Amino acid sequence: MLDFTELSEDGIEFEQMIREMLFALGYKVFWSGAGADGGKDLICFEEHKSIFASCKRKWLVQCKHKAISGRAVGVGDLGDIVGACRHHQCDGYLLATTTYPSSAVISRLEGVAADPRDNLTTGCWDAVELERMLSTAELWGIAQRYLPESATGWKIYASERPNHWTANYRGYYFHIVNRIGSECMAHLPLIDDELNRLEWLSREKFPEKHFMRLRSIYFDDKSGCYTLYADYMHPFDSKPVMGNEEFEKELEGEWNVHYSIKVRDYLEFSDHYDPDHYDFYDEHMGKFLLGLSR
Predict the structure, then answer these.
(1) Residue 89: φ, ψ to 5°
(2) Where along the chain do its domains lie?
(3) Which keywords are on file for this protein (predicted)?
C-alpha cells in the first residue's frame, strides 16, 4: 500500500508527482500559477483524435495534499471552481487529493457538472484512485521516485509479446526484451548490478544534474549477450562530459554486456520535460525490440 505521507507537507512534491503522471500518460501539462491556497494549479490538454472530428479539452487540475493531516478535502479548500475554470478558459476540472473528498465536495462537483450554464466536466482522483494508477507499468517508476519507502521492489508487466516486458525498479522505467525466450527473471541480478554502475558513474564522474537513465535491455538468447540502452542526460546549457562512443567504452564490462548510449540535452523547467518522457522511448522501440544499435 502506498504511503502518501512520504510526500512533503507543503504539497509541492504532490503537485510535481501529478504533473509527471499526466506527462507519462501522454498529456500536455503546464503550470497555471499559484492557486487560492498558494499552491500551483496545473493546466492539462486532452486531445481525442478521430477520422470524423477531433476534439480537445482543457483541464484545470487542483492538487490537495491532506495525507499528513488525514483530513478530507472540504468545500472551503476548493475556492471558486467555476470562476477559476473561466479564468483559465478550461472546460474540465480535476481534483487530485492524497485523502478523499468530503460528501459536500462530491455534491459540489456533481452540481457544477450538471449545470448547463457552466458547461464543465468534473472529476476526482482520490488516494485510492491514485494508488490504482500508480501501480501500473506506466506510472510505477514515478511512485518509486516520490514514495521510495512504500513503493519498493520490482514491478514487471507482461506485454502482448511473450518475450517483452515493461519493468519499474528503483525509480527507473525500462523495457526487457529477449530475442526468443519467454522468461525474464534470470536477468534481474545483472540489471541490478548495471544500475549500480550507472548510478556510480552519475554520482562520481558527472557534474550536477548530469545523469544516466536506463531505457531498455535486450538479451540475445543465442549468443548470451546483453545490450543495454541508456541515455546520458545533461542540461541544455551544459556541455556533455563525453560522447556516445566514449560512454560505451567507459561502460565496457563483462564480455557479454554491451551498451548503446544516446547523449541528450534537456530543459529542466520546460513544461514538456520529464526524465522518462515517452519521447525517449517511442522513437526507438523498434530497435529495443530487435536489439539494434541506436
Answers:
(1) 55, 45
(2) 4-132, 153-290
(3) Endonuclease, Hydrolase, Nuclease
Give 68-88 pLDDT, tens digit per residue. 999 999 999 999 999 999 999
Measured CA to CA, the distance from residue 97 to residue 81 in angstroms comes to 15
Provide the pairing of β-strand 92-97 with 121-125: parallel
Asked if residues 73 and 101 have their Cβ atoms less than 8 Å apart, the reply is: yes
pLDDT tens digit string along 93-141?
A: 999 999 999 999 999 999 999 999 989 999 999 999 999 999 988 899 8
Chain position carrying cell 526487457: 176
pLDDT tens track for 180-229: 999 999 999 999 999 999 999 999 999 999 999 999 999 999 999 999 99
The answer to whether domain 4-132 and domain 153-290 are alike in fold is no
Percent of the chain that is helix, strand, coil (3-state, to 5)? 30, 30, 40
Let me know: does 71 contact 98? Beta carbons within 8 Å.
no
CA 47 to the chain's CA centroid: 19
| Fold category of 4-132 in CATH | Trna Endonuclease; Chain: A, domain 1 (3.40.1350)
Task: Tell whether the model's pLDDT for residue 38 goes beyond 60.
Answer: no
Q: Which helix (H) or strand (E) holds 226?
A: strand 225-235
Threshold 0.85, pTM exceeds: no
- Residue 177, C-alpha cell as written in the block: 526484451
Domain 153-290 class in CATH: alpha beta
Q: Give 132-197 as a DSSP string.
A: HHHTSTTTHHHHHHH-TTTS-S-EEEE-SSTTEEEEEETTEEEEEEESS-S--GGGHHHHHHHHHH
